[in-house]
Amino acid sequence: RTRHMLELSAHAEPVFLTFRDDPEIIARIETDMNQRPIFHFVAPDGVTHTGWRVEDPGFYVDAMKRTECLYIADGHHRSAGAARAAHECAASNPDHDGSEEYNRFLAVLFPAGELNILAYNRVVRGLDGFDRETLLQQLGQVGDLSPTTDPTPPGPGSFCIYMGPGDGGGWHLLTLAADSIDADDPIGSLDVSLLQDRILAPLLGIEDPRTDPRIDFVGGIRGTEELQRRVDSGDGDLAVSMHPTSIEQLLEVSDAGKIMPPKSTWFEPKLRSGLFIHSFQPTLACKG
Length: 288
Description:
Strand 10 and strand 11 form a beta hairpin. The protein contains 9 helices and 15 strands. Helix 1 (2-8) packs across helix 4 (76-91). It has a 6-stranded antiparallel β-sheet, with helices on both faces. Strands 5-2-6 form a 3-stranded mixed β-sheet. It is α+β, with helices and mostly antiparallel strands.
């Protein structure tokens, strides 16, 4: 990403930021959205994009000055790449003074209450030596396990697990005991952590989901039908339908100074890449 930014001399994808709801800011946004838009179109993925020109940007500048925190919802690699690109440009610019455009990157801000987080589901290849019956017995010791026809978990602390058609197959609902979850632990209480700590690592031998080739991640926008298709086609042996992480959980993790586990959130809709571009002029040494 860093090399891409330097070669283009531009940031073409905004970092997705959020902030805790501020009624005054939200009211002003709604007012500005009553004006005639400068563009309006439906992208190939079906998402409608509408943009307005803000006539009084000073209000938002002042509002952001009093906003205590901005949180990266999506775009950690983009922001890290932008920081590295800026560092390279600064190091090769003997006249660097901090005012250059390469010191800034493109971002889009959404009030937290307007974000839509979908589940980030899992597909696993190989049952680590278990047959279905034995694995179901092991899962039954982790929590309350029962067959279900609904592939969507009813709430946090529960998972829907699919192991294909036939004996012992189909969907199963696994619900963890509420008193076994430490609600004061912002990381350990996340469903993605509970799944990793109680099932993926101890039962299926997946110690690091970042690097283990046996696990794939499927965005919730693709639905549970995609999970079932992957297993039925032989592209996986087990799929897990997750309950979405809440925006409040994400903010609590950040407030605690911690980092979300990998593939914890899937945000929809996403601002289309290239819709806004922030260009900068790096030094020749930086670009070459």
